[in-house]
Design brief:
The radius of gyration is 26 Å and the shape is elongated. Strand 3 (about 20-25), helix 1 and strand 4 form a beta-alpha-beta unit. The two termini are about 40 Å apart. It has 15 helices and 14 strands. It is an alpha/beta fold. A five-stranded antiparallel β-sheet has the order 5-6-7-9-8.
């Protein structure tokens, strides 16, 4: 597997720290509202990456957090006259449902900030003790000047960032670029700390969770949306280097942003598409297919035409699959123990190993469907070849997270199917129509 590493700005081989095992952390959502379609893309991208690695025998530990402490959560709770916990519980459930609807596996671990508070406070204390952070009137800030490498992920120089930084109204900071690790507050949910009653800054939680869950300061892959590269991930690296002298992850992988009809999705523009609405309209398969139709690093433009095109393409695949499964069942052939067709499978997995090139993987899927259709038309039917091709399609779609459905045929169904084919061959069309009606009623044709 080769992936584009934003840290080195090159496509390079994934070389796990521990052979055969991959540690992957993807920044999760702040849970104050339902997931929108922009939140969906990293869910699908990194679930596909995980499945592609697993298909090649890798043991993947996939961690993605829930940020359940934030000003937006507090404000939402106040507006709804309820507690932060009720707000976050509601929307964590919504995210979990969205994952399920999109056929994405749940993360192996899904930590919450509220469950990691002791570790966060201890981590900040260590930064203060190391001289990388300082306290002023109950607030704690990270000292950017303490880290000579700051800007290494986003490839920016501190001097340039200083020129572009607005004048900070908070005169407590030594440097306008210094960021908050602990915020003293009397609004909303709070915790006791050595500095004040308050809550942590956003940039500390993920680095602490990585250290805590994986029990090591360096993992294989850190991912998320491109908007997280700076300042969020830059700040994570800075903190980790200050304590552990390593940049947190060997590979930094980002999915591109989403546009709606060529315009960047934005709440201020009113063009936000909610995931639950699109799932209700098109279903998880279609949304997932649209998402993987573009290379994950590229911007993705969404419109009705994209979803309609995905529906048509999937219909062709599902039709070929259904017909193949019917023929195999009638001929008492199973795909369960069938050997994959290496000539079809290898181009598919090669595409995914090439920086998760899902468009090329889709091309391989369509070639597999073409072969299935060709085999079905051959006389006599090569059941072994059809079983191998169909099993290969099943494996491909499993990796891409697309759910295939087929009708299970009973012994009676198979007998009716054979009688239908025999009646057609004998040109007994009246009887053939009766058998065909029975098969249609059962959803077999």
């Amino acid at each position: 597997m080769k992936l584009y590493n934003s840290y080195t700005q090159t496509i390079e081989p994934l070389q796990p720290i521990e052979e055969g095992k991959v540690s992957m952390y993807v920044c999760g959502p702040t849970v104050y509202n339902y997931p929108h379609i922009g939140n969906v893309r990293p869910i699908i991208v990194f679930d596909t990456l995980k499945k592609a690695l697993q298909a090649q025998g890798m043991d993947v530990t996939y961690v993605s957090n829930y940020t359940d402490v934030d000003d937006k959560i507090i404000n939402t709770a106040i507006e709804n006259n309820t507690t932060e916990k009720e707000i976050t519980a509601k929307f964590i459930e919504a995210y979990d449902q969205t994952r399920a609807d999109l056929h994405a596996d749940m993360p192996d671990v899904a930590p919450k900030v509220t469950d990691t508070m002791d570790e966060i406070i201890a981590f900040i204390q260590d930064l203060v003790q190391a001289g990388a952070a300082y306290e002023v009137d109950g607030d704690v800030y990270y000292r950017v000047d303490s880290n000579e490498k700051y800007g290494e992920l986003s490839h920016q120089k501190v001097e340039d960032l200083m020129v572009g930084a607005r004048i900070d109204e908070n005169e407590k900071k030594e440097n306008p670029l210094d960021f908050t690790l602990w915020k003293k507050t009397d609004k909303g949910i709070q915790w006791d700390s050595p500095w004040s009653k308050g809550r942590p800054g956003w940039h500390t939680e993920c680095v602490v969770m990585i250290n805590d869950v994986f029990q090591k300061p360096l993992i294989d892959i850190h991912g998320g949306g491109l908007d997280l590269k700076f300042p969020h991930h830059e700040n994570e690296i800075a903190q980790n280097e200050s304590l552990h002298h390593t940049h947190l992850a060997n590979m930094w992988v980002y999915n591109g942003m989403i546009n709606i009809d060529g315009i960047k999705m934005s709440k201020s523009l009113g063009n936000v598409w909610w995931a639950k609405d699109l799932i209700a309209l098109y279903g998880g398969n279609v949304i997932r297919w649209v998402m993987i139709s573009a290379q994950y690093r590229a911007p993705l433009n969404l419109n009705e035409k994209a979803f309609e095109s995905a529906q048509k393409e999937l219909k062709k695949i599902f039709t070929a699959y259904k017909q193949a499964k019917i023929l195999l069942q009638v001929n008492e052939e199973s795909t369960t123990d069938a050997t994959l067709d290496s000539g079809l499978w290898q181009p598919f997995i090669d595409a995914l190993n090439d920086d998760l090139n899902t468009p090329n993987a889709i091309t391989a899927v369509l070639e597999c469907v073409k072969k299935i259709n060709q085999t079905q038309r051959q006389k006599p039917l090569d059941c072994a070849a059809l079983a191998a091709q169909t099993a290969t399609l099943e494996k491909m779609m499993d990796v891409l997270g697309i759910r295939l459905e087929f009708v299970h045929m009973t012994a009676e169904d198979k007998a009716v199917y054979r009688a239908w084919k025999e009646a057609v061959q004998e040109k007994n069309y009246e009887q053939a129509d009766l058998y065909r009606a029975q098969l249609l009623e059962k959803g077999i044709l």
